[in-house]
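Fold it.
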Amino acid sequence: MRTDVSPGSTTRRAKTPDDITTMRVRRTTLAKLAQRQGELGSASLDEALETILFRQSAYEAIARLKADPTELADYQSEACEWAETDVEMHE
C-alpha cells in the first residue's frame, strides 16, 4: 500500500482509487450520522451519507414536479401508461 506523508506531518494517508479525504464535523453531527447509518443498514458512514444525499435530491425533484401542475399531469399520465404495459416474461 502506498502512503502519502505531507512534509512536516506525522499523519499518513493511504492512497486509494476513490480519493478518500477527511472533513471536520461536530461530534453531535457524527453521532446523528452514525445513528442514521444503523437505521439505513449502511455498511459505512460514507454509504449512509450517499443514501441521505440521494434521497434529499429525490425529495427536491418531487417538490419541483409538484410545483408544476402540467409536468405533474404529464408524469402521472406516463406512469399510468407504464403501469398498464403488458410485459411478456421469458424463462
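Residues 23-83 form one domain.
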